[in-house]
C-alpha cells in the first residue's frame, strides 16, 4: 500500500508524579494495487486521516476500518469488510494467508482482513440461498491482494436451464492482481438439448487483462429425433453470446426426413441453444438462407433441391422453421414444377414436437392426351406424408384438388390422388359440375328427364374400372402399364328427384393391358340420390376383344317388406353378359345362383333366365311360409314350395326339373303309407318322358323307403 504522513502530534500526561508522552501519526493510505478497485469509481479504496499511535520502534497499527465492496482485478469477484486492519507493526497483529508472503505472526505487515466477505462470480446467477462466504486469512501486501477461498455447493436456475457446481476453490497471489478460481463439478442443464454439460471450470484474471472463464465442453455429440426432424449437436460450449447472454454454442447438423428416407441435411455452425429453450443463428439474425443443390426425394417423389430458408422465431410456440425451395417431378408424364417443402418444430414447456413435411400451394399443368394435347388439367397437389393405397403395393402421397377444363366452361374443382409403386408413379382425378336443383330439362314435354350434373376425369397407370366407385378414388388399385384414362359422365333423373336418378360414366383407355371403353351406371329408384353407388349398379365394357356387362344391387321398401335383389357386387351380380372370347351368354340370374330374387310381405321368389350358345334355360321358385296363431287354435301353418326349370336346346330339345309338394304312396311288406312329400320331378320333351322320385317314412320297425315312378 502507499500513503502519506499527514500529521504527527505528541501528547504528555502525568501519572503518579511521572511524566509520560505519546506520539500519534495521521496517515492517508490507499492500495498500491490499482486492480483492487471500487465499482463505478474504478479506483482503489483510500483511507484518509487515519490516526493511531506511532511507537518509538516505528510500529503503527489501526483496526476497525471499513472496506466497501471492491472488485478483484477483472475477475468479477468482489470483497468487502467492516474490520480492516492497517498493520505497520512487527509486534502486533497476526499473519495472513501463506499466499501473503513469508512474514507470519505479529511480524506480518500490510492490510489485514480479520474477516472478509467474498462475493464469488457466479455467472450473474443468484442462488436460492446466499452465496457470500466469509474468510479470515486474506490481506494486501506490496504485491497486491492475497488469500484463498473454498466454498460448498452452488445451484441456480438460468431461464429454463440450470447451473450448479459442487465447490469453488480460488486464490489470489501478489503480482498484478493474479487471480484463479476453479469451479469443481460443474453441471449445466441445457433445455431443448435435454443434456448436461459436466466437468470443472476455471476463471483466470491478471496481468491487466480481461478475465477469462472456461467451462467444460461435451465431447460426446447429442442426437435428438422429433418425428421427421432430427439433429446432432457437437462441440457443446457454454459461453456468453453477445446480445443473448449465457448460451450453448454448437456445431449442429439438422436432418429432415420423409417416410423413413432422408430428405435433406443442413449443417449450421455456430448454432446456439439458448438457456430459454429457443434457438439462435450464428449470424445474429432470426433467419438464414442456405443454398442447396443435388437430387433428393420426398418419400418416393423425386425432386431437385434449390435452397433452404431457416428461421428461428423469437416468440411464439415455433422454435425452428425450414422452408425448402425445390423443383419437383411428380410424375413421368407431368412437367417439373417449383414446390416449397415445409418443416417446423414447436415447443410447449419442455416438450418439443415436429411438423411436416407439407408443401405450400403450387400447381402443375397436365396436358391430355400426352403428345397431342387437346385439353389441360391444372393440379394443386397436397403432400399427405404417405399411407396405404388400394392394395396396389404403392404409397398414396398426394391428394388435393384439380382444375379441369377438358369439358369446357368454368374450371372445376376435383379430387386428386397421386402415389408411387413398382418404380413408377400413378395418379387419378375426377370432377363433377352440378347444374343446380332444377337441372337442365332434356325431355321437357312430358317432364320426365332433366340433366343434373356432368363429370369428367383423367388418370395415369390405372385400370379401365378406376372410376367405378362414385365415393372415393382411393378404392381403385393402380396398374403400371404406362396408360392414360379419360372419363366423361352425366346424371339424369325425373324433375321430382324421386322417381328415378341415373348416373352414367364413360371411360376410355387408349393403351395398356385392358385398353378399351367402359360405361358404368348407377340408379336410384323411388328415392332421392345419395352419396353412395345407388340401388343398382353395373357396367358395360369392351376390352380385350370382349364385350362384358354386369348389373347388381338391392332395392327395398318398407323395411324389407318388399324388395328385389340382384347381388351385392360385381363378383356375384345376378345379371351378367359376355360376348367375344370364349362362349357367349346373357344371364338374368343363374340356375346355380345367384338368382334374381324378390320378396313381398311373406312370400319369397327367385328366377333365372340364361341364354347362351348352349340354349335357353329359365326357371324359378316360389316359397311360402305362413305361421298363424289366435285365440281359437293353438297354432296353424301353411307351407308350400315349387322350384321349376326348363332348358331349350338348339336341336330342338326341352328338358326341365322341378320339385313340388306331391301326394305319394307305397306298399312294403304289406304295409302301405301315403303322405304329402317333396318330390323331385324331371321332364323331357321330344320324345316326352316324365319321372319322379320321393322318400317316405314307414312305421316301426320298418325304416324309410325311396322310390321312383315313371310315366
Q: Could you please describe the fold and organization of this structure?
A:
The protein is an all-beta fold. It is built from no helices and 52 strands. The strands form five sheets. Strands 3, 5, 6, 7, 8, 9, 10, 11, 12, 13, 14, 15, 16 and 17 form a 14-stranded antiparallel sheet that branches. Strands 18, 19, 20, 21, 22 and 23 form a six-stranded antiparallel sheet that branches. Strands 24, 25, 26, 27, 28 and 29 form a six-stranded antiparallel sheet that branches. A hairpin with a 2-residue loop joins strand 45 and strand 46. About 4% of the residues have low confidence.
Write down the overall geometry.
Answer: rod-shaped
Strand content: over 45%
Q: What is the rounded Rg?
A: 50 Å
Mean pLDDT figure: 81
Count of helices?
Answer: 0
Class computed from helices, strands and strand pairing: mainly beta
The end-to-end distance, rounded to whole angstroms, is 148 Å
Q: What low-confidence regions span 5 or more consecutive residues with pLDDT below 50?
A: 386-394, 624-640
Percent helix: under 10%
Sketch the major β-sheet: 14 strands, antiparallel
* E-strand count: 52
Q: Quick recap of the structure?
A:
Helix content is 0%, strand content 63%.
